[in-house]
Fold this protein.
Amino acid sequence: MFQNLAYAKRFQQHLESTTFPENPAHLYDPIRYILALAGKRIRPLLVLMGAELFDKDTVEAALPASTAIEFFHNFSLIHDDIMDRAPLRRGEPTVHHKWDDTIAILSGDALLVKSYAELAKCEAAKVAELLHVFNKLAIEVCEGQQLDMDFEKLERVQEEEYIQMIRLKTSVLLGGALQMGAIIGHADAEAQALIYDFGVNLGIAFQLQDDILDVYGDPETFGKQVGGDILSNKKTILYIKLKELISETDRPLLEDLLNSTTIADAEKIENMKALYAKYTIKALADKRKEEFTAVAYEKLHAIKIADERKEPLFALADALMHREK
């Protein structure tokens, strides 16, 4: 996985300098815990990369905004894990599992408040514009999560509905992080729109790649159970395309796979993969992923800055689209 080590190191230093009180321990210990479960840190790094793209001297000034994005992302993970009843996050017990739901809810709330405290540390002249972008992406992430929960109860979800859900739940946070960096880097409105669109389209492609890896990834490198989406009947791009294309002859087989409570996990995964192969579902999913990746690259190319300045972002995009985990 591509990672700008200089950015990552500087961000980590700044994050560690942001301390939380010792008491109440049940409020702040879970915050320290989730922040220590370091993920890829892609979102805060995008803030720094967005700032440097337009003005390399503003990276330091972008650190509070990058921290706000990281705090918000982890707040959303704490609450999402409660809603999903997820036992693990990044290979460790989730906050609600390690403590309980009420502690997790309140710690998540506190982390959201702390994200606004970080934004308040940004240059005063930029705060209003940063808040506008941050508030927009924050409410859209909530909308995306609600749509995802609604989809669990629907018999059929259209591809366009799914794309809109992942755009809100996942992608606007990437686009917003880049735009906030661009604001700090003094980018004009046109450049901000382009860098935002780059991030959003890259985020959609990233999620489609995640859907594909869940079925076809290498168990040694994927980092979670391959076939987990199949076992939970999750409405991914592969599921949606199969439901759309399957013949009336094969539909009863699919319904049996989705509804059976006796079929073994391994058998369900293999039978579903066989249906995916019959209808070339992986190729169709790959095509949609590549379409969104192409749009992302087009938006980045369109920014009126020398291409060599954009190389770190192209390298990140390439790594995300060719990852195995």
